[in-house]
Amino acid sequence: MPSRNFKGMDLERKASNYYSTLGWSTQQRWHFRDGREIDVYGTKLDYLTGKSYLLVECKNTARVSRADVEYFAKKVLNFAQSLTRASPFGGSPAIYAVIVHSGDVSAELESWAAGLDPPIQFRFMD
Fold first, then answer.
1. CATH number of the domain enclosing 78
2. Which tops the pLDDT comparison, 70 or 86?
C-alpha cells in the first residue's frame, strides 16, 4: 500500500501536469525565501495583461479544513505582498490560488475562500 506522502506527491504531479496543459510553466515544491513551500508554482506570460502567477496547494485528505485554507491563504497573501513591493510600477499582477484536493470541501468553505483577496478556488483530482 503506498504511503500517504507518496499519494500527496502524486497529486502534486497530477496538478502540475494539468496546469501545464493549460499553458502554465509549472514547478513542483517551490520555496519562499522564508522557507515556506508551495506545492505547485506556475507562471504564464500574456503580452496584453502581463505575467500571471499560479499558486497551488495539494490536499490529499478526506476533507479540506478551514485551517488548511487559512494556512494557504497566508502564503498567498505574503506572496502577493512581495510582488507589490518588488514592482516599481505598483499594482497587482494576476494571482490564481487553487487548492487541488482529493477529498471533500464544504460549500461554506468554498464560499468563504472565494471571498478572500486573492480568492482561493478548489479543484478536485483523484
1. 3.40.1350.10
2. 70
